[in-house]
Amino acid sequence: MKLSFTKKNIEALKLILANPPASKEKAVKVTELALRAMSSFKASEVEKGVQSLSKDEVDTLMKFIYKGFETPQDNTCGILLTWHEKAYAVGGVGSILRVLTDRMSI
Amino acid sequence: MAATLRPYLDAVRATLSAAMCIENFSSQNVERHNKPEVEVRSSKELLLKPVIISRSEREKVLIESSINSIRISISIKQVDEIEKILCHKFMRFMMLRADNFFILRRKPVEGYDISFLVTNFHTEQMFKHKLVDFIITFMEEIDKEISEMKLSVNSRARIVAEEFLKKF
Fold this sequence. Notes:
The structure holds two protein chains of two kinds. Helices cover 75% and strands 0% of the residues of chain A. By secondary structure, chain A is mainly alpha-helical. Chain B has helices at residues 5-19, 37-40, 81-96, 98-101, 120-125, 128-165; strands spanning 51-54, 60-65, 69-75, 114-119. A four-stranded antiparallel beta sheet of chain B has the order 1-2-3-4.
């Protein structure tokens, strides 16, 4: 959480993505954190952020993106769409399919 | 807001292409029956996770997929009363003629304005990428048509009011 307040957005995001939430109560908090981390990126930094992630992390990122779409707020939708575009460029159709089929949803 | 249109449509297109992985699957409960599993919702293992893509609080697309069918529900942006009425009438007009559309659903899903139901039979007869293209074009055109209709309603109302008030 402290990492979000410094400019180290990328490390904060990597930390959150490395441990997808296991229990339901934690899931809400972690999603909130993930969305805050993603919103703190500027539109131009998103691409660099996605490039620094591993394959599994891109899949988890996609899950968080779709989770974020479920509760749309005016300021988050635009950046979420940018994240979706860049993550799709890296992950491809497969990353979306893995979100649709995965039993372990966040 | 216009800047989010392209990424929104691209995101919907990508998700639709991913979700349209449907094949023939007969009903597991009733023999010799073939039902769209996304409508019946009888077994969990046949359904994929439903996914929403939203451009704003009012504009979103819900995509529910299953082994032999996919249901796409669209919520159209309506800012004022007149757009609500126009949208409602327009969608109703199309849904009454759903048979000719093939993939249109007669009733929209709760909370959305219009729904499409694509089954494996449709994908066997039509190209998947063309179906996706159709839905994306539909989403683009609807907004344009509704604003066109709103403009024409307003200009007609203005002319009528002018003519009427000339008498006084």
